[in-house]
């Protein structure tokens, strides 16, 4: 749709252009050559007068008639024009402005119609695609059903054919079995006939062979049965030993974990008391254990290893060590033998012809301590009364040999672990080095390996610990005739030992803990009641409650193993025996 603006007739011959040509030349094309002059005029007019309307985006408007179009302001130096021609120019400018700012509803409708047509075409395209997809899916489903039906039909035909082949095979096998049975029957008939002909001649020989064969088979069966029973017995013993070993390892692991946890708690608890304890000259169980481990390391590095590495010192050390072992083995329970052996042992370490070199003296102290401890592990375990002479000899050596107290206690700690202190095994050694593995920790705890490399059982370990602890308490029981011994061999250590053991639930729940507690009560329980009176009776009351009512938290003294139950019963009876007067 096109619109035209009425134009005033122009008297100028240059502007008399037919209407059709003007319309063709001005279809909103402002760049045509015929209207270039007009454009220049419009541009000049726009620049001078300014735009009276906003952009098309901000809402354009048009004049209602040509009379409303404002006249351009005249320039000062503009040339003069005739009035009619000026009017036509202004009318032309107004018409151009109206045409350029005109909004055509038809064109807008045409654009919307194109968009609607495009949307309708797209919708029709998508609908046709959906119908096509549905049709294809339907065709696929029908094809799948057809193929499934065909497959099922082929399957049924194949099954029928296989059934037929199976029946044929069964019929053929039946025929072959019948023929084979007939052939076997004929063959056996011939064999039986041949045997019957030769039976009379070979009857005696066959009887002898049969009897010999039956006897050999019977002996072989008996031998196989014995071997089988023996193998089963060995397997059962190995399984029982393995089960007991695993149970002991599990208990040891639990004890070690509990000991570690209790050591941490004790360490935190004792941090608060460290000032008062140091002021009173007291030490903790961990400190005593570390001191013993440190002394043991010094004995090894400054004594035994030095002597073994020095050819000039090794012969004298070896001969003296053998003499010490022999003297300790000759010990009996009479005062004359005790005094004689003690003097001979002191004479070996302190000869009259001059003192021994320090490394040899230290190594011989270690050898003497080891001999006493080994004798306690073997003799005292078998016979309790053998602890008396051995303890007296050890006491005499402690009084006369300088430095023997530290070495002897270090050796006791080496053989039975921290039970001599007592305390749970710490997580680290005295020098702060953690244990390499569980095997090293058990070795430090006192467990020993046999000749075959296997770890000793819990019962063997418990017997060794009891023997050494009995020797230790028997030494504490002896009253010194001279100056008091070192603090670890003085009688007050008994009170400290019992108090530390009762303060460690981790040690009390083990069978070894109940066993050593019984040994402590049996050796020095009655004497402790006389020395400490009512205070020790309180301790006996705690021990009796622990043996009857338990330790709390579901734990009992000695644990729930048979050895622990037996040890708990002995502790209970010993407390009752002490409270009755020890008679």
UniProtKB/TrEMBL annotation:
InterPro entries hit by this protein: GLE1, GLE1-like_sf
GO cellular component labels: cytoplasm; nuclear pore cytoplasmic filaments
Bias kind Basic and acidic residues: ranges: 198-253
Biased composition (Acidic residues): 36-46
Family note: Belongs to the GLE1 family.
Gene Ontology process terms (BP): poly(A)+ mRNA export from nucleus; protein transport
Protein name, UniProt field: mRNA export factor GLE1
Bias (Polar residues) ranges: 49-59, 74-87
Location of region: Disordered: 1-87, 198-264
Keywords: Coiled coil, mRNA transport, Nuclear pore complex, Nucleus, Protein transport, Translocation, Transport
Segments forming a coiled coil: 118-161
GO molecular function, one term: inositol hexakisphosphate binding
Transmembrane domains' residue ranges: none
Location within or outside the cell: Nucleus, Nuclear pore complex
């Amino acid at each position: 749709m096109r619109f035209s603006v009425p134009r005033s007739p122009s008297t100028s011959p240059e502007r008399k252009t037919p209407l059709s040509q003007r319309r063709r030349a001005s279809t909103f094309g402002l760049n045509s050559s015929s209207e270039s002059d007009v454009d220049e005029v419009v541009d000049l007019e726009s620049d001078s007068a300014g735009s009276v309307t906003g952009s098309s985006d901000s809402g354009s408007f048009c004049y209602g008639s040509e009379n409303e179009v404002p006249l351009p302001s005249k320039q000062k130096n503009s040339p003069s024009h005739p009035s009619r021609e000026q009017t036509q120019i202004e009318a032309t400018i107004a018409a151009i402005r109206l045409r350029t700012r005109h909004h055509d509803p038809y064109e807008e409708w045409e654009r919307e119609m194109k968009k609607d047509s495009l949307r309708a075409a797209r919708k029709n395209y998508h609908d046709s695609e959906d119908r096509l997809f549905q049709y294809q899916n339907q065709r696929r489903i029908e094809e799948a059903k057809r193929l499934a039906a065909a497959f099922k039909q082929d399957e049924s035909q194949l099954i029928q054919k296989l059934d037929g082949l199976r029946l044929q095979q069964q019929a053929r096998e039946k025929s072959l079995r019948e023929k084979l049975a007939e052939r076997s029957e004929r063959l056996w008939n011939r064999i039986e006939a041949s045997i019957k002909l030769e039976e009379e001649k070979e009857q005696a020989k066959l009887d002898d062979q049969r009897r010999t064969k039956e006897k050999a088979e019977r002996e072989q069966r008996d031998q196989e049965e014995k071997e089988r029973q023996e193998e089963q017995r060995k397997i059962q013993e190995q399984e029982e030993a393995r089960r007991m070993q695993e149970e002991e390892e599990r208990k040891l692991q639990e004890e070690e974990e509990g000991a570690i946890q209790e050591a941490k708690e004790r360490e935190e608890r004792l941090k608060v008391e460290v000032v008062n304890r140091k002021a009173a000259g007291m030490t903790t169980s961990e400190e005593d254990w570390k001191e013993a481990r440190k002394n043991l390391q010094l004995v090894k590095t400054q004594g035994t290893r030095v002597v073994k590495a020095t050819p000039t010192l090794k012969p004298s050390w070896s001969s003296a060590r053998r003499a010490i072992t022999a003297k300790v083995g000759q010990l009996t329970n009479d005062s004359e033998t005790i005094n004689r052996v003690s003097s001979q042992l002191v004479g070996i370490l302190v000869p009259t012809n001059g003192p021994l070199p320090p490394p040899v003296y230290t190594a011989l102290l270690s050898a003497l301590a080891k001999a006493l401890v080994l004798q306690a592990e073997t003799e005292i375990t078998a016979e309790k009364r053998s602890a008396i002479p051995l303890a007296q000899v050890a006491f005499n050596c402690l009084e006369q040999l300088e430095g023997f107290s530290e070495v002897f206690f270090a050796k006791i700690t080496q053989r039975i672990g921290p039970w001599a202190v007592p305390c749970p095994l710490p997580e680290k050694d005295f020098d702060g080095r953690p244990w390499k593995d569980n095997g090293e920790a058990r070795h430090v705890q006192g467990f020993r390996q046999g000749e075959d490399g296997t770890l000793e059982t819990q019962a063997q370990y418990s017997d060794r610990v009891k023997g050494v602890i009995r020797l230790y308490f028997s030494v504490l029981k002896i009253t010194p005739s001279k100056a008091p011994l070192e603090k670890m061999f003085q009688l007050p250590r008994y009170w400290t030992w019992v108090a530390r053991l009762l303060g460690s639930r981790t040690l009390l729940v083990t069978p070894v803990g109940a066993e050593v507690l019984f040994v402590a009560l049996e050796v020095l329980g009655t004497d402790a009641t006389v020395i400490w009176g009512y205070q020790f009776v309180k301790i006996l009351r705690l021990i009796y409650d622990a043996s009857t009512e338990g330790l709390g938290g579901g734990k009992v003294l000695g644990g729930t193993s048979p050895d622990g139950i037996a040890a708990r019963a002995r502790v209970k009876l010993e407390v009752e025996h002490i409270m009755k007067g020890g008679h």
